[in-house]
Design goal:
The chain is α+β, with helices and mostly antiparallel strands. The chain has one domain (25-165): Calycin beta-barrel core domain (Lipocalin, Beta Barrel). Helices cover 19% and strands 57% of the residues. It contains 2 helices and 10 strands; from the N terminus they run ααββββββββββ. It has helices spanning 2-19, 24-36; strands at residues 40-46, 49-58, 63-70, 73-83, 86-92, 98-107, 112-121, 129-139, 142-151, 154-165. It has a 10-stranded antiparallel barrel with strand order 1-2-3-4-5-6-7-8-9-10. It is globular, with a radius of gyration of 20 Å.
Length: 167
């Protein structure tokens, strides 16, 4: 009987050690789960006129596609997904490049998610590009976003919007 007790205790200990402490990666999975709740249609009044966001899950729920349209701008697309244990996005920008960003921080209680620049395709040296993004999940029907645009290594401007779910 003692042998079985030690075997079970050993297995429990091994599982605990293997699982390890909660890490940043679990925060990325929680952030992606929160992003998935955005599926639907959103609108905001911005400096560039009315803006519209549409969120759709694709690829069996493994990627979230955000389509942004506005009265005075061409449509853009951002795709969010987990890359292993990290949450990343690729933004297909009207600037003609595709910056990739990694989730840097997610606060479950405040609903604030921050992304930082990783790299980009079609980006010339010093070229203008979206460099960071912040998403604030205010509640189930309200969302705030802020995107920072960099050029020649410095922040040039930010674009902020407050969206309301319409569907």
């Amino acid at each position: 009987m003692k042998r079985h007790y030690f075997l079970i205790a050993g297995l429990v200990l091994a599982a605990t050690v293997h699982a390890g402490p909660k890490t940043e990666q679990s925060s990325d999975a929680a952030a992606f789960a929160r992003l998935k709740t955005l599926v639907g249609e959103w609108e905001a009044n911005t400096q560039m006129g009315k803006a519209h966001l549409s969120y759709e899950l694709i690829a069996g729920g493994t990627a979230l596609v955000e389509k942004e349209t506005g009265e005075k701008m061409p449509a853009m697309l951002t795709v969010y997904h987990l890359d292993g244990d990290r949450l990343v996005l690729t933004h297909y920008c009207m600037a003609g490049n595709q910056p990739r960003m990694r989730a840097r921080a997610f606060d479950v209680e405040s609903g604030k998610l921050e992304f930082e620049f990783l790299d980009a395709t079609n980006l010339a040296a010093g070229g203008g590009h979206m460099h960071s993004a912040k998403i604030h999940f205010v509640d189930t029907d309200h969302l705030k976003t802020e995107w920072a645009f960099y050029e020649n290594g410095a922040q040039k401007f930010t674009e902020s919007a407050e969206y309301t779910r319409v569907r």
